[in-house]
Amino acid sequence: MLLAIDVGNSNNVIGLFSNGKLLTHWRIRTEWTRTSDEYWVLIKEFIQLNDVETETIDEIVIACVVPPLIPILQEMGRKYFSCEPLIVGPGIKTGISILYNNPAEVGADRIVNSVAAYEKYGGPLIIVDFGTAITFDVVSGKGEYLGGAISPGVQLSLDALFENAAKLPRVELTDPRHVIGKSTVESVHSGTVHGFASLIDGMVSKIQGELDQKARVIGTGGTVGLIVSRSNSIDIVDPFLTLEGLRIIHQRNQEG
After folding, report:
1. How far is the C-alpha of 9 from the C-alpha of 65, rounded, in Å?
2. Which residue, 41, 191, 221, 245, is most buried by CB atoms nearer than 10 A?
3. pLDDT for 216-238, tens place per residue?
4. Residue 255 resides in a domain
5. Catalytic-residue membership of 109
6. Residue 116: CATH number of its domain
């Protein structure tokens, strides 16, 4: 079995694959101070809750945008799963050309998403990933990674708002009933959801114009479900795109 780990700035998304099929997945907070032993205890609990024997997991693939956690997860793989994790980064086989000024600057998660999206949907593509940051990644019809854009994410923006505006209450984000809010809470809901939906639609429109061709738009990430209902530009929501990309990259490197 294959354990796929996507380490983001806010959350770790972990998936378990058997024969190329995603069996189950979990989400845990990203904490820089966790040890390899603590990661093992957490992951073991999730695995056993799904009636899977940990001994059946013999391969691990990791995409990580938090560099200090890479050696910790590598140690966990060696110590508890008796395998060397495959880390997505320079020198591994992805099957995609990276047309960035410095390819090493591209986050592993952005490459993984692009690989999965092109494999599943063809190109050209725009992938919008709703995480700590909202990333826009563009893939050509030939499967080339062309670049993209990065903006602050939904939760990050809200946290900054609540921390710096003393009179605004911290609220749980929900889908707004109206654009014109009738209370402070409704106004925050509207400004956040409709505001980010407009950001997505505006950026997609500008990227489409620069590409000078129609590209399919794929949405993924933790808050995609809330924003997609108010966006006019996202064609497909694929919540497990990153995990699928990790599986594909692992397979390509095994074949290589």
Report:
1. 7
2. 245
3. 999 998 778 788 888 899 999 99
4. no
5. yes
6. 3.30.420.40
pLDDT in tens, 238-252: 999 999 999 999 999
Which one of the listed residues 109, 129, 137, 238 is annotated catalytic?
Answer: 109
Q: What whole-number distance in Å separates Cα of residue 233 and Cα of residue 215?
A: 10
pTM: 0.90
Q: What is the predicted pLDDT for the residue at 256?
A: 55
124 and 219, same domain (yes or no): yes
Could you give the number of structural domains in the chain? 2
Q: Which residues contact 207 (CB under 8 A, 6 or more apart)?
A: 126, 136, 138, 148, 149, 215
Specify if 16 maps to a domain: yes
Under 8 Å between Cβ of 7 and 61: no
> Does residue 141 sit in helix, strand or coil?
coil
Instruction: Judge if 29 and 68 occupy the same domain.
Output: yes
* Residue 185 domain boundaries: 97-245
d(CA 127, CA 44): 32
* Amino acid 189: pLDDT: 87
Residues 13 and 113 in one domain: no
The beta strands (E) that lie in 31-168 are given as 59-64, 86-87, 97-98, 125-130, 133-139, 144-152
Span 69-94, average pLDDT: 94
Same domain as 120, residue 71: no
What's the average model confidence in pLDDT over 74-87? 95
